[in-house]
């Protein structure tokens, strides 16, 4: 069962950690739950620079693609759902990490805590049986409620929100991480993509809270569509581009120090957070994770967690699998989920800051997805000393053709290789690396199989890297 848009197909697992209902374009369940009013608001703001008329014409086309039919996409939330205070996290990158951080902080209020991410559904650290359907999501939440859970942190993808999830579960706190190019194969335009995410903020209840990244330009648009009666709080790191925040920050991190042992920074709070500790330390490596931790910290405080308790809880959170996951010591391999141009650029910037030798990156791009980002992925990789182009999940496309589209963005980079067997690419990069080099394996994170036209093949980047490092004694 697949959902079809613009000639591309998406398997069920691609549609959200929450299990968005979907069928083929000829079936009944390809509906858009996003409010057109929000599309107009967000797009008109963006249109000041690009031309509102052209954007509105594109929205009309998208309306036809996401043909609606009467009736709600999801059933109304069950009555008991109001007893679970829920924060939901959306954005292009960092959703899983932010949700994981937030769940840990909420544990300082009461346990157990429900955590819903693309890695699964958890009651504290216990995984719950889950399949990609809304019924399965509700069953997990019900089980958590019956076990005593009264707080939840839920990751929400743009696809789930476009299909109306913001109305299907009561959200008290909505968190936005960032916006960059991704999923345009599904949404058709950046405006549709952002408008889908905006649903989380438009449908906040009176007394709800929107937590926005003060340095991300999209936050300025989202701030204008936050529901009446909801408050907005902001966070960010001073080193984040653009150089100046687009919103006045309530919680800032500066004096950032990143090492192989983790990340730390000074906290600069506004008066409303005057009891905030002076410093934050996290085990995750890199400024993007610090940004995620600040988002979780602000949300946790708004949900009633004392600031000192929240900061202490964040310091104990292990990095989620496949998020700048470090293996070995000489050389080091880094497994990271970075699969968008912005995420890849930030991951490589973190690695570059820690690398004493050469920086090598092994990556590809997904097939049957947004082709327009492939050259941008290549451009993001220019800062590496060696680039090894390989497969990601090519699906029905020719892996060699995908690699060549990425290569365009690399320009005249002096050291580019193409090894389409991903395991071979990883093994070769590690075998040839010097003892002070860092090899970044980007794009797939904790995924356990690759998807080809011929079917699925098992492959875990971290396992392949660990074996290659063991052969070196690293």
From TrEMBL:
Any single GO CC term annotated in Swiss-Prot or TrEMBL for this entry: cytoplasm
Mur ligase central domain residues: 89-300
Subcellular location: Cytoplasm
Start and end residues of each Mur ligase C-terminal domain: 322-445
Pfam families (alphabetical): Mur_ligase_C (PF02875), Mur_ligase_M (PF08245)
Source superkingdom: Bacteria
Keywords associated with the record: Cell cycle, Cell division, Cell shape, Cell wall biogenesis/degradation, Peptidoglycan synthesis
Sequence similarity: Belongs to the MurCDEF family. MurE subfamily.
Protein name in UniProt: UDP-N-acetylmuramyl-tripeptide synthetase
Protein source organism: Polyangium spumosum
Organism classification: Bacteria, Pseudomonadati, Myxococcota, Polyangia, Polyangiales
Gene encoding the protein: murE
């Amino acid at each position: 069962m697949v959902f079809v848009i613009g000639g591309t197909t998406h398997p069920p697992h691609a549609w959200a950690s929450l299990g968005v209902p979907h069928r083929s374009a000829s079936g009944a369940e390809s509906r858009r739950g996003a409010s057109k009013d929000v599309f107009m608001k967000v797009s008109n703001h963006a249109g000041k620079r690009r031309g509102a008329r052209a954007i509105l014409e594109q929205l009309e086309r998208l309306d036809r693609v996401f043909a609606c039919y009467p009736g709600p996409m999801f059933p109304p939330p069950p009555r008991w759902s109001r007893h679970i205070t829920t924060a939901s996290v959306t954005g292009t990158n960092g959703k899983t990490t932010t949700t994981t951080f937030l769940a840990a902080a909420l544990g300082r209020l009461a346990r157990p805590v429900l955590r819903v991410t693309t890695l699964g559904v958890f009651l504290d650290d216990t995984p719950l049986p889950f399949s990609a359907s809304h019924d399965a999501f509700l069953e997990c939440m019900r089980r958590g409620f019956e076990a005593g859970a009264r707080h939840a942190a839920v990751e929400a993808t743009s696809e789930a929100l476009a299909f109306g999830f913001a109305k299907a579960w009561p959200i008290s706190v909505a968190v936005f991480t960032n916006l960059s190019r991704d999923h345009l194969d599904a949404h058709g335009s950046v405006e549709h993509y952002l408008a889908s995410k905006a649903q989380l903020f438009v449908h906040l209840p009176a007394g709800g809270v929107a937590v926005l990244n003060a340095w991300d330009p999209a936050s300025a648009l989202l701030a204008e569509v936050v529901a009446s009666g909801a408050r907005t709080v902001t966070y960010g790191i001073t080193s984040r581009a653009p150089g100046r925040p687009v919103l006045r920050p309530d919680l800032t991190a500066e004096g950032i120090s990143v090492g192989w042992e983790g990340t730390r920074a000074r906290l600069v709070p506004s008066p409303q957070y005057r009891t905030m500790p002076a410093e934050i330390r996290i085990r995750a490596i890199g400024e993007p994770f610090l940004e995620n931790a600040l988002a979780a910290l602000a949300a946790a405080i708004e949900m009633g967690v004392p600031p000192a308790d929240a900061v202490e809880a964040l310091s104990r959170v292990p990095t989620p699998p496949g998020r700048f996951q470090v293996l070995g010591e000489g050389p080091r391999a880094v497994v990271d989920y970075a699969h968008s141009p912005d995420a890849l650029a930030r991951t490589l910037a973190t690695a570059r800051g820690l690398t004493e030798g050469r920086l090598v990156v092994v990556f590809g791009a997904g097939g049957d997805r947004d082709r327009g980002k492939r050259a941008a992925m290549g451009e993001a990789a220019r800062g590496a000393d060696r680039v090894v182009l390989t497969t990601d999940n090519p699906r029905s496309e020719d892996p060699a053709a995908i690699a060549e589209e990425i290569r365009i963005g690399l320009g005249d980079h002096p050291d580019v290789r193409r090894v389409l067997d991903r395991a071979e690419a990883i093994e070769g990069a590690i075998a040839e690396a010097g003892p002070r080099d860092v090899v970044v394996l980007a794009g797939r994170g904790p995924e356990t199989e690759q998807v080809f036209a011929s079917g699925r093949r098992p492959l875990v980047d971290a396992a392949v890297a660990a074996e290659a490092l063991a052969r070196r004694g690293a």
